[in-house]
Amino acid sequence: MDAADPLAPLAADLEALPPARRRSLRSLEPAGQATFAGEALPLLDLASNDYLGLSRDPALQQAATAAIEAVGVGAGASRLISGTRPVHAELEQALGHWLGRERVLLYPSGFQANIAAVQALADRHTWVIADRLIHHSLLVGIQATGAKLRRFQHNNLADLKDQLDRARRDAPQRRLLVLSESLFSMEGSSPDVTALAQLCRTHGAALLLDEAHSLGILGQGGRGLGYGIPEISLISGTFGKAFGSGGAFLAGNATVGDWLLQHSGPFRYSTALAPPLVAAAAAGLRAIQEREPERLALLARAERWRDALEAAGWPRPLGSGPILPLVVGEDRRALALQEQLEQAGLLSVAIRPPTVPAGTARLRLVLRHDCPPGTLSRLIKALGRP
Fold first, then answer.
1. Cβ-contact 108, 99 below 8 angstroms
2. How far is CA 356 from CA 32, 88, 105, 112, 363, in A?
3. What DSSP designation does 281 have?
4. What is the rounded CA–CA span in Å between residue 63 and residue 279?
5. Which of 49, 87, 223, 371 has its CA 20 to 30 A from that of 347?
6. Which domains, ranges and CATH numbers included, belong to the chain?
């Protein structure tokens, strides 16, 4: 008898995938281009997370080039073998000073950093109480620890309090961990981080705050919404968004920093973040500190966009940052809007389940500092009537 095809379950899964849920890779030039009826059209980027337009900034490019010339492209080994370069320590120290945190460790990606953070703060005996819309990387981290997962309603601190109260009644000494984000990437919304941290302190729960999308944009000087709140056990951040580079980091006190150095598998067993990316991230950090007027102007412009979209009949996008989702419901409608904008020369991507809950497909609009004047009027015209 022939053995069963071990890949048959994968084939069956793909066969059952609805056409409107299928993904494909598209290669775009830096300026953005798409093809319609055989014609390549330039696209204005309203999709990427390069909020301050730093990814093509000359200072970052020069910093990366200088690092390549000095030490090469790759680090060649993990940080605990021979991969640590002076530029790694310099960036960690600068970030620690900027964020008011005792210890910072760099990671090659935000996905790895989030897994490492959960593993530091939870084990199989822990109850993790997480916002219902946390990033997939955090869920993978929970699965890796074997911790028990409970969810609270999105940004609903009353629901979180109820669950923390129940958890403490059921097991007064149990280790608790709360997970949230300071700017949810598909919602544009933010929790009340001060109240969130106070709840965790009252209940003796650790708090992991993912600040990937808020750092450089929200909070005092762009330091994120967790800045100055010592009750936050760990902050997770990335360099691939407002910083204009790549890679990630975790920031906390000396104890958790040393635990990560001694025990974190994602840190120990990964080749160190490439020196050119580290150097570019350091230049990005300097740029963020030097360009406070641009950051404030971006936030003010985002409010004008929200006002205009609402006036045009669209549901007002949540939050106050540069992420402005237009929730339309059906997958096909979101895809149709994406194509409609591309035909008008605007790049914005339809976000569908499982990235967002079923029935909440959306067009994710991202405002960047370097969007040219007149972009908003182009967008409103291209969107048409809701």
1. no
2. 25, 35, 30, 21, 11
3. H
4. 6
5. 223
6. 27-52+291-383 (3.90.1150.10), 57-290 (3.40.640.10)
- Which tokens is 298 given? 């971006």
Q: Enumerate residues 6+ apart whose C-beta is below 8 A from 18.
A: 331
Contact yes or no for 294/23 (Cβ under 8 A): no
User: 369: which 2 tokens?
Assistant: 């500092």
CA separation, residue 214 to residues 119, 217, 238, 257 (Å): 23, 5, 10, 22
Q: Please tell me what DSSP assigns to residue 78.
A: B
Model pTM score = 0.92
What residues act catalytically? 49, 135, 181, 185, 210, 213, 241
* Packing angle of the helix pair 292-311, 275-290 (nearest 10 deg): 80
pLDDT by residue for the chain (386 residues), tens only, comes to 467 888 888 889 888 988 888 888 777 765 554 444 455 678 899 999 999 999 999 999 999 999 999 999 999 999 999 999 999 999 999 999 999 999 999 999 999 999 999 999 999 999 999 999 999 999 999 999 999 999 999 999 999 999 999 999 988 889 999 999 999 999 999 999 999 999 999 999 999 999 999 999 999 999 999 999 999 999 999 999 999 999 999 999 999 999 999 999 999 999 999 999 999 999 999 999 999 999 999 999 999 999 999 999 999 999 999 999 999 999 999 999 999 999 999 999 999 999 999 999 999 999 999 999 999 999 999 999 88
Supply 227's token pair.
């800045």
Under 8 Å between Cβ of 346 and 44:
yes
Diameter of the chain by CA atoms? 72
Question: 188: how many CB neighbours lie within 10 A of its CB?
Answer: 22
From the number of C-beta atoms within 10 Å of its C-beta (0-12, 13-18, 19+), residue 78 rates as: middle
